[in-house]
Every structure is written in structure tokens, then in C-alpha cells.
Design brief:
With about 120 residues, this protein is mainly alpha-helical. Helix content is about 50%, strand content about 10%. Strand 1 (about 65-70), helix 4 and strand 2 (about 90-95) form a beta-alpha-beta unit. Helix 1 packs antiparallel against helix 2. It starts with a helix and ends with a helix.
């Protein structure tokens, strides 16, 4: 049986790391999940796990900035490599962070995004 409690435990395992202070970022996904119906969440996760967009990636004609969290326990390295293989114009930047890198490294991410879009503006 799927339960929000089990998902909370999963999030603690996925998002928490020994060397990160997650006191501010970890409650964010947990608070959101507590408000969701477990059946709905289970359905959404099931649907997302079956989506394959790899055939569409080569058709993207714009420059892509891929911020890759090096300690991500959700997006596998093989998925990151697939994006680089299929995307014609991708710039990958590795950031020492967990999956929630925008929440844990906001300044670094903002600087990289600004740098990436400046030549295209």
C-alpha cells in the first residue's frame, strides 16, 4: 500500500545528505506531499515513470543549459548522459549538490543561468 509516510521516508533518503544542511529545503517537498492525496500521487508517479521523450530531444533547436546535480539520487547519470547524446546544443554544468540544486545552490544556479542566456538575449 502506498502511503505518504513511506514517501516522506523516501524523500529523507533521497534529499538528505550528510554534508548538507537541509533544515530549510527538506521540509519543502515534505510539506507539499502531506497535502496530496496518496492515490493521486501514486498515479502521477506511475504516469511519469512511463514517459519517454528521447525521440523528441534531437528536434529541440534552442541552446539548453543542463544543471546536473552530482549527488542527485533521482536522475541517474545514464539519464544525464542520454540528454547530452540526444540534445544537439546542450551545455552541461556539474554542480556539487543533491537533486534540489536550485534550492540548495540558488546563487550559483542563477549566475550560470544568467551567463547562459546573455549571449542569446
Amino acid at each position: 500500500m502506498f502511503s505518504i509516510g513511506a514517501l516522506n521516508e523516501f524523500c529523507l533518503d533521497v534529499y538528505a545528505t550528510d554534508d548538507d544542511d537541509q533544515s530549510e529545503t527538506l521540509p519543502l517537498p515534505l510539506n507539499v506531499m502531506e497535502q496530496l492525496d496518496g492515490t493521486l500521487l501514486k498515479h502521477r508517479i506511475s504516469v511519469l515513470s512511463r514517459i519517454d521523450v528521447s525521440a523528441l530531444l534531437p528536434k529541440i533547436e534552442t541552446s539548453i543549459l543542463y544543471l546536473h546535480a552530482t549527488r542527485d539520487r533521482i536522475v541517474a547519470e545514464s539519464d544525464a548522459q542520454m540528454m547530452q547524446e540526444y540534445l544537439p546544443d546542450v551545455e552541461r554544468v556539474d554542480i556539487d549538490a543533491p537533486h534540489l540544486l536550485l534550492q540548495t545552490r540558488p546563487q550559483q544556479c542563477a549566475e550560470l543561468i544568467f551567463k547562459h542566456v546573455q549571449p542569446h538575449a
